[in-house]
Amino acid sequence: MTRTNRPATSLTRQLGLPGAVGLGLGSILGTGVFVSLALVAEISGALVLPAILLAALLALFNALASAELAAAHPVSGGAYEYGHVWLTPSLGFVAGWVFLLAKSASAATAALGVSAYVRHLTEGEADGLAVPLAVLTSVGVTALVISGLRRSSAVNMAIVSVTGLALIALIAASMVRTDPPVIGITGAGLDPDWSLLASATALMFVAYTGYGRIATLAEEVRDPVRVIPLAILLTLVISAALYLGVGWAVVRAAGAGVVLDAAGGAPLEAVARALQRPGLATLVAMGAVTAMLGVLLNLVLGLSRIVLAMGRRGDLPPRFAHVDARGVPTAAVLLVGAGITGLVLIGDIRLAWSFSAFTVLIYYAINNLAALRLSRAQRLYPRLVPALGLAGCVLLAFQVPWPVWTTGLALIVGALVLRAALSRPRSGRLP
Questions:
Q1: Are the C-beta atoms of residues 206 and 357 closer than 8 Å to each other?
Q2: In which element (H, E) is residue 16 found?
């Protein structure tokens, strides 16, 4: 089918394995490693490494469930589509709604993180421009996504390269130093509280969920049955290795000295400065900027595809289902960009990340529930995999502060009530 006569709601399959892995890493290696590791360390102290491993295990269960769902139904929309196809339209709607909430909050965190590290790179000269810089970042990334997936993917690969170099340099500098520097982890003593491990794991889990971007973009992946599962697994293995390396560097530096302040938005730069290697702090700050730009870029891509899917099914106005001649859902991208820019104005990294943790865990709970409904022929992995993923997501979702999860539940109920009030005849499930 040619570009000129392609249906107005179809997307083009143009991503191979390297591009899919690059988009997955670009989604993961950002706020997760440059911001959330410090949040997790503040909560769990020396248990940050077990939290990283437990979160990686839960992410693996969810990733395998996402892979088999995407292979069985390779269209854009992720758990929103899977909920409609294998569960009920209402659960599909909830999945789409919480994904928009979760990832918009994560995207706002990324934009604020870019602003924080840029201010550190300018040695505080841009301190008065924190929110304007974040807004400008959000607008710029939205414009890039509108320019097309091919260009966005190329920029993303460059971003991931710089980010990976910065993280490897930080890990290497920590490994070769025989006298570990002293870094204070606010709120974490020398004797960690094991009861807080679940909360730390919940926050850390969000840092891995960028692999879902591969499934969300399934309609644009070539040979999805082969490429999607392999790309998701490679993305998780690479990101977990880097998280463990950076987490080890943070723990090795733990003590009483320079304060590692996650809320300040640039905690890993404190670790880099304490290592006293020429240019390392600057390289880490640059890697953080590119990393969070990559996260923001991939979130705008993923969120816009959820909006596209919701427009197709009538949960959003039909104009958001339109795809232009270049294969870009422009209206959906603009809506997502506007929503993220609005959330940036709140300016609270810690609150945004905690809210994202709750809503994304609910999203993946629905994702795993849908995977349990796959037929034997569609299933790639044992049913135990999505069952464990579902149990882990439900357990950890309510480990965040209660005002966060009660607000999240209220927003879900409110959205369902509004949907029921505005409902109109809808088409049946997709085959």
A1: yes
A2: none
